[in-house]
Amino acid sequence: MSEKVIVSACLLEQRCRWDGRVPPYSETVRQFQLENPSVELVPVCPEMLGGLPVPRTPCKLVEGRVFETSPDKTKREETTGTERTAVFHAGAEEALRLARLGDCRLAFLRENSPSCDIKGITGQLLLKNGIEVIATR
């Protein structure tokens, strides 16, 4: 049985970002794979696991709570919309369940994400449960 590692699906060129774009494959994850060819990557998108669609309204984390915000980067700090904290927690719990199922001890998560960053809902939950989190692009 091979070791498994949780990876934000967007780091693996999967279409799950809020804006529907497909980001490039993460160079950090690619390098990890080259150095650890027997490790199985387990892609997760906590936001989708929580029930959010692609595309979706962008969200931001404010003092432990998650709110929809403006797609316009210049207005994101001043605009808050519908609270999505429960959805983010549900997705984080499902990501943790998958990590436990695969006996994962490491996760590569998308930096600057209200869900996946080390300071995000999922990142914090994984850390609290003994899973090392590396935030990357």
Notes on the structure:
- This protein has 137 residues and is an alpha/beta fold.
- It has one domain (4-136).
- 28% of the residues lie in helices and 20% in strands.
- The protein is built from 4 helices and 6 strands; from the N terminus they run E-H-E-H-E-E-H-E-H-E.
- The strands form 2 sheets. Strands 2-1-5-6 form a 4-stranded parallel beta sheet. A two-stranded antiparallel sheet has the order 3-4.
- Helix 3 (85-101) crosses helix 4.
- It starts with a strand and ends with a strand.
- The model has no long low-confidence stretch (mean pLDDT 95).
- Gross morphology is globular
Tell me the structural class: alpha/beta
How do the SSEs run, as a string of H and E?
EHEHEEHEHE
User: Termini separation (Å)?
Assistant: 28 Å
Sheet of most strands: 4 strands, parallel
Which regions are unreliable across 5 or more consecutive residues at pLDDT < 50?
none
How many domain units? 1
Amount of beta strand = 15-25%
Gyration radius, rounded: 15 Å
Q: Using DSSP, what is the number of strands?
A: 6
Helix content: 25-40%
Q: Give the number of helices.
A: 4
- The whole-number mean of residue pLDDT values reads 95
Report strand order across the widest sheet.
Answer: 2-1-5-6
Quick rundown:
This protein has helices at about 25-35, 45-50, 85-100, 120-130; strands at about 5-10, 40-45, 60, 65-70, 105-110, 130-135. It is α/β, with parallel strands linked by helices and about 140 residues long. It has one domain (about 5-135).
